[in-house]
Amino acid sequence: MNEVFVPDELDLALLESLQRAPRASWALISQALDVAPITLARRWDRLRDAGLAWVSATPGPAFHDVGVTAFVLLRCRPRLRGKLTARLQNDPSVATLEITGGAPDLSMTVFARSLRALQDGLLSRLAAYPGVDSVEISIVTTLYGEGSRWRVRALDTHQVNRLTSAAARDAHARPEMPQLDLIDRALLDALVVDGRMAFQELGSYAGVTPATARRRVDRLIASGVTRVRCDLATPVFGWPVSATIWAKVPANILQEVCRSLAGSPQVRVAAATTGANNLVVTYWLHSLREFEAVEAALLERFPAVVVSNRIIDLRPVKRMGRILGDEGQAAGVVPLRPWTD
Predict the structure, then answer these.
(1) How far apart are CA 236 and CA 52, in angstroms?
(2) Cα dihedral sign for 268, 271, 275, 276?
């Protein structure tokens, strides 16, 4: 980026509005923020065009009920890490990719339709990738908190309440994975690239009328096939540190620990997993110093938790299909297709 971007309060309020209601009209958001719709649209265009924020479709709760989410940790030879990273970032099976500051060297989130698809897909290819020394896989059994629920916390209670109606139906929908046809798949492809694409454009992309596109998209979201979420270049907006704790938790308190963590404003991901560790929690933090505090708070509340690894992400390379630049800004997209691939 050629100039330093300094976000103001309206930028943050706009981002949280889109985090809470990603496809809400500018008119509805205008009522919540008391700002003219044209001003909000221009602000969003500026943020989106600079890669500082984006809205996209990601797997929803219905997918997580029938599909597979896995955390994959790689150790690799230092001189080949660059080539390996470039190859992985362009692999559509890799949703999220980070270069870490310790063991492992690379951390990934991978989606697959089934356990067999996970093995036959990316995992079977990793052995042939240059520089891979070892692979460790943890499969998510229950996802308690994920990125679409993280908030910048810029809105007051009154503003949040005014936006609630736009998201209430989807938030309380019962996840149910329907059969997807070619129209559904085309709409999902378009929403992965631009989650706020107008129904007119969506209809044109999928070869249907805007009314049909609206009905189909509403069904895809309400059924839980997909979530539409707003992401941002976190370093630019004041959250430059992404840190992950891997831990062992007694089975009888695992659910309590995960639910507690999922409610924390600093937690981006909280998941119960298979493998040597049964808890993975990722924090977005303002500084490295906060990492000590959040770990201490976890262990103070739950002394039975045993932390086995702490990972700091040196550089986020990809997040939910978005290729990221040096400051975490969106620089490209490799569309996710976990619903069909």
Answers:
(1) 8
(2) positive
Interior CA angle at 65 toward 59 and 69, to 5°? Answer: 60
Which token pair is 46?
A: 């500026």
The per-residue pLDDT for range 178-216, each reduced to its tens digit, is 789 999 999 999 999 999 999 999 999 999 999 999 999
Going by C-alpha positions, the residue among 87, 100, 99, 71 that lies closest to residue 131 is 87
What are the φ/ψ torsions at residue 142 (nearest 5 degrees)?
-145, 130
End-to-end CA distance of the chain: 34
Q: What is the DSSP letter of 32?
A: H
**Model pTM score:** 0.92
List the beta strands (DSSP E) in 191-305: 226-232, 241-248, 267-273, 279-285
5 vs 2: CA distance, rounded Å: 9
Neighbours of 274 (CB within 10 A): 13
Burial class (CB in 10 A: 0-12, 13-18, 19+), 8: exposed
* pLDDT tens by residue, 71-86: 999 999 989 999 999 9
The sign of the CA dihedral 10, 267, 25, 324 is positive
Q: Among 225, 34, 27, 242, which residue's Cα sits nearest to residue 150?
A: 242
Sequence-distant (≥ 6) Cβ neighbours of residue 95 within 8 angstroms: 58, 108, 109, 110, 111, 318, 319, 320, 321, 336, 338
- CA nearest neighbour of 329 among 236, 252, 241: 236
How many C-beta atoms lie closer than 10 Å to residue 120's C-beta? 12
Distance CA(157)–CA(237), nearest Å, equals 22
Which residue shows structure tokens 């309440």?
A: 161
